[in-house]
Structures are given as C-alpha cells and as structure tokens.
Amino acid sequence: MTFTLAIVGRPNVGKSTLFNRLVGRRLALVDDQPGVTRDLREGEARLGDLRFTVIDTAGLEEATDDSLQGRMRRLTERAVEMADICLFMIDARAGVTPTDEVFADILRKKSAHVILAANKAEGSAADAGLIEAYSLGLGEPVRLSAEHGEGLNELYSMLAPLS
Ligand code: GDP
Ligand code: MG
To answer: Which residues bind GTP 1 (predicted)?
Structure first.
C-alpha cells in the first residue's frame, strides 16, 4: 500500500528543498484549480524502497503579512485533508516560533498522523532548537538537513511501518 505525505510548515523552513530531494525530477503534476489548490505541488517520492505521493505547500512565500495567516491555515488544512501523514517542518536553527505554534495547533486538531521534523539541523547551531521542538507536544523531532540529505534514514524508519 502506498500513502500521501504532506510537507507543511511556515515559509522558509526548507519544505521545498525536502520535496525536491524526495521527488528528484519526477514532478508529477501541478493542480491548476483556482484558489488554494494551485499552491499545492504534488510529486512522486522515492525514499529507499518506499514510493509515495508527496505534497509541498508552496505559494506562501508571496503572501503579504495580512494574508499570510489565513492562507497558511487554508493551505495547510487542504494538504492535511489530502494526506495520510503530515510532515510538520520547523527550522531547528530558528527554534520554535509563534507561527510554528499556530501550525502545531492546526495539526493537533486536524491530522491523525504527524511527524515533526526539525530541519537545517546540520551542525551544532541546531541543538537548542531540537530541544525546543519537544515543547510543540508532537513527540520526538526527526533531525533533518534537507539541503545536505541528512536524517533521511530516520525519516525512512518512521515512514516504512506506515506504508
Ligand atoms: P520553504 O519556504 O519551506 O519551501 O523553504 P525552501 O525549501 O525554499 O528553503 C528556504 C531556505 O532554506 C533556502 O535558502 C534553502 O536553501 C534553505 N535550506 C533548506 N534546507 C536546509 C538545510 O537543511 N540546512 C540549511 N542550512 N538551509 C536549508
Ligand atoms: Mg517552498
């Protein structure tokens, strides 16, 4: 059985970097429905022997401050509805921000299955953020570096039992 994984989190934490790493060149389709869905990118992911669909919540980068909260909420809720599992990404170097807490709240209410990922975790600059991540109440964070390809084996071991 395969599954759909949505990568969610505030802008700039590294969601698209992980999406691109999982999908490589196998970008499947871009939904052209108006509104929220055009900001969801869907691709065919490979991780070891796992094959699954991955959704990147894009398009938040262009939102103004006023519209960002509402857009984030709508996009995230839509991605959660489409997905079996949510990978909630924070930036381990920045630590937990108030915006991350808004996401954690949405996910606690809406998603049955959340994997917390602390990205940009290469090197010791991420250590404090990794400890802080526990305060989100979403369990132990997976230590990731999407850019450097670190932590993917840990991500694999969390996803494999679900496939
Ligand atoms: P998104 O807005 O969440 O999709 O974030 P992006 O994937 O566009 O990445 C935002 C920035 O973070 C870019 O400059 C990336 O190169 C950088 N970035 C992504 N992953 C990592 C990582 O593992 N380590 C570090 N240091 N930077 C990263
Ligand atoms: Mg992005």
So the answer is: 9-16, 56-60, 119-122
How many whole angstroms from 39 Cα to the centroid of ligand 2? 10
- Assigned token pair, 86: 């949510």
- Contacts of residue 73, Cβ cutoff 8 Å, sequence gap at least 6: 102, 106
Our mutation pick for probing the ligand 1 site, out of 7, 10, 12, 60, counting the most ligand atoms within 8 A of Cβ, is: 12
Distance in angstroms (rounded) separating the CA atoms of residues 87 and 97: 17
Phi, psi of 9, rounded to the nearest 5 degrees: 150, 170
Q: Which atom of ligand 1 is nearest to the CA of 61?
A: 2
Q: What is the pLDDT of residues 65-96, one digit of tens each?
A: 667 778 888 888 999 999 999 999 999 999 99
User: For residues 84 and 5, is the Cβ–Cβ distance under 8 A?
Assistant: yes
**pLDDT tens per residue across span 106-144:** 999 988 899 999 999 999 999 999 999 999 999 999 999
For the chain, first and last CA: distance in Å? 6
Q: Model pTM?
A: 0.91
What ipTM describes this predicted complex? 0.99
